[in-house]
Amino acid sequence: MPTQPRSVVHRAIRPVRRLVLVAAGLLLVSSLIPEPAGARNLQGARARLTSLERQIERQQAAIAQQHERLDAMAGDLARVQAALQETQAQLAMSQQRLTDAQGRYETSRDRLQGVTRTAYEQGPLAPVEALLGATSLTDLVDRYQYLNSIQVANAVVAGGVADEAAGLSAATRELDALASRQTGQSVQFQSHQAALRDGLLAQQRQLADLNAQRRKAAQLVQRLSLRVDPGITGAGETFGNWAALLLSSLGAPQCQDNLTVLVAWQVAEGTAAAYNPLATTHDMPGATAFNSVGVRNFPSVEVGLQATVETLRLPVTSYGYGAILYDLAHCAPAATTAMAINASSWCRGCAGGLYVLNVLPLVQGDYAAFAGR
Length: 373
Description:
By secondary structure, the protein is an all-alpha fold.
């Protein structure tokens, strides 16, 4: 390849140097010109949204861990409650055995008192006089056998009284032991129940914090005109408000029993799924996946309510949802509806078999604390 003269190369380099100098000057000037305030605000908003998203993810993970702890606590409570109920049943049977033993003892004692009274009235020489009054050897033998049979019978009565007294003493000891065990198990049950209540209230606070962060995120998403992600922006309603909305959607009365059992149901689920406090897996337009088992995040309260209603109205008798709807429609006692929920396929076997049932007494005891989450 031929080479160019050095003068030609120098002339070619000069324009390039001038262009480089001009570009550097423009960059310097542009760096000195302040960025528009709107652009800075948008960048700040995006940064805050990113930070909120990380906080929301951490809160959701913390809530999931708390829910696992609560499941373990519910299982412990179920075992303690089952043991307490068994002791209570044994105690009732022991009380009946004690009552029966007391009756047998009193009957035997009355018979012994009758024998003693007769012997006293006849005097100590009555057997001798009976023998001396015999008219023949045969008569003597008969009288002796008769007196002997009386003595044996009296001994049996006396022995029976002793046996019944021993049985009564054993029944009393058994009753005392069962009563003592019941007391200990009752204290243990109350301790587990109090721990579960504290854990559930802590979960309520976590969910409230999550909703506060989601509301902030929703404002930023709207400001930045970004695509809405329900998992980030779905703050939802308080448990009490959502219960009332669901009852309205079902056409069921908003009586206190219905509100209480629906709040207890939401507390039992304790899910962070957006607009889906009962954790239904029923899909709807705009829904996204919340977890690997199919629970959905819904884009709005209305969509979440509709998904829940459609789930409860699924025409599958074996699911047992019809009993729940019937109880809600007739404002059944909260415990009755809770049993229908527990017996249904919604979460059969959860919480050691006490799904919703173990939470209901806690919600009944402090409805405002749980309903106002």
